[in-house]
Amino acid sequence: MFILASASPRRRELLQQIGASFDVKVSNAEEIGNNELSADELVKWNALAKAKAVTAENPNIPVLGADTVVALNGEIFGKPGNDDNARKMLRRLAGRTHQVWTGIAWVSRGETYTDVVCTDVNMEPIGETAIDNYVATGEPLDKAGAYAIQGRAAVFIDSIEGSYSNVVGLPLAAVAKLAREAGVDIYGHSGS
Known about the structure:
- The chain contains 6 helices and 7 strands.
- It has helices at about 10-15, 40-55, 85-95, 130-135, 165-170, 170-180, and strands spanning about 1-5, 20-25, 65-70, 75, 95-110, 110-125, 155-160.
- Helix 3 crosses helix 4 (about 130-135).
- The relative contact order is 0.18.
C-alpha cells in the first residue's frame, strides 16, 4: 500500500481504475506557480514537495506526489480559479497544439524518484458561445488549462500524442514504471 499525496479526485479515480492499493492524504506543501522554472522543472518540483510533505508525517509508507500544468509556447497555465481566467485560457488554447506536463515523485525508504511526462494535445477551434457554455458548467475552474479531457471538453480535443491518463492528471504507465524502480508494489501484494 502507498499514499497518494493529492486532493485530486481524477488522480484517485485513475488509481482505482487500475486496482491500486492506496490511501489519500492531502499534502500541505505550498506549490510554486509561474516563475522562472520551465514547465517540466515546475511540475517535478511541486510533485516532490507534495510527496515529501506527506512523507514527513508517514515515514514508513511510500508516498506518490504529482503535479500537472498545461503549457503553450512556454507559457504555463495552471488552474484558472475563476470564469474570466478560464475563458482567457480556453481562447488561447483553442485551435492550437499545447502540452500537458505532469511531474510524478515517489518517496520510499528515504529515497526519492522523479519523472516528468509530456503529452501534446491538439485542440479544435472553439467559438465564444461554446467557451461561455463550457465555462458556465463550472468544470474548468479546478483543471489545469481550464478543461477536462475526460469531461465535457472531450468534444474540443481533436487528437493527442502521448499518454491520455497524463492529460487527465496522472500518467499511469510512468507511475507504475517509477514505482518498480522505487521498489513500490502499487497493488499492495504482500512479500514485495
